[in-house]
Design goal:
The protein is α+β, with helices and mostly antiparallel strands and about 210 residues long. It has 2 domains: about 50 residues; about 150 residues, 3-Layer(aba) Sandwich (Glutaredoxin). About 40% of the residues lie in helices and about 20% in strands. The strands form 2 sheets. It has a 7-stranded mixed β-sheet. Strands 6-7 form a two-stranded antiparallel sheet. Helix 2 crosses helix 5. It is globular and about 50 Å long.
Length: about 210
């Protein structure tokens, strides 16, 4: 083969290798950038334990001021609802009551708390009357509209009026979150229970902690 052709093919091989190497570096940079963006997204949303719970100030069914500090030292079973609720709320509070009965003496270490999302109608007196149908250890919490809106934000609760009677502004239902929260003695979120969870499921979780 003429020497000229050898040089030509050698130069061609060098060019091919160089182009391939350049593409490889470019793809590597793109991948790194993509992974970096992806990692940023994960870091933004995967922070371990969900940010649920915090400071709040309300009034219980006896008209006494309470806050998140009131329940420190006990496990708290918390649910948001309202006394006019036709099904979800009484069902959940009954489940809480059953769970506390199943715990026996350990129930003293657990505080069931019902926070209204309907402060306009759920006065301390109404809460007290309503909670008489459930476990004796229940605390019912209410407050002014601003206080309730703040505690809803703290616990990421959704609640809005629905199906309102146009002839009676006090006759309406509330669409609201139906999950229950379990908080630790330090006031921090531990777990949640979906609506319909059986009392035994709650008891099992509590016994792991007590």
């Amino acid at each position: 083969m003429p020497l000229r052709n050898v040089y030509f093919y050698l130069l061609l091989a060098i060019i091919i290798i160089g182009v391939g190497f350049g593409l490889r570096v470019l793809n590597s940079e793109k991948t790194s950038t993509s992974l970096g963006k992806s990692s940023g997204t994960i870091k933004s949303y995967s922070t371990g334990m969900p940010e649920i719970g915090g400071m709040y100030s309300l009034i219980n069914q006896d008209g006494k001021a309470v806050s998140n500090d009131t329940y420190l030292g006990k496990y708290v079973l918390m649910f948001f609802g309202y006394t006019f609720c036709p099904d979800v709320c009484p069902t959940t509070l009954t489940t809480f009551s059953t769970a506390l009965e199943l715990l026996g003496k350990d129930a003293e270490k657990v505080k069931p708390v019902f926070i209204t999302v309907d402060p306009t109608r759920d006065t301390p007196e109404n809460l007290k009357s309503y909670l008489m149908h459930f476990h004796k250890n229940f605390d019912g919490l209410t407050g002014n509209i601003k206080q309730i809106e703040e505690v809803k934000k703290v616990f990421r609760i959704y609640a809005v009026r629905s199906q309102q009677d146009k002839t009676d502004n006090k006759d309406y239902l509330m669409d609201h979150s139906s999950i229950s929260y379990l908080l630790g003695p330090d006031g921090k979120f531990i777990a949640f229970f979906r609506y319909g969870a059986e009392a035994e499921v709650i008891v099992t979780k509590l016994k792991e902690l007590l």
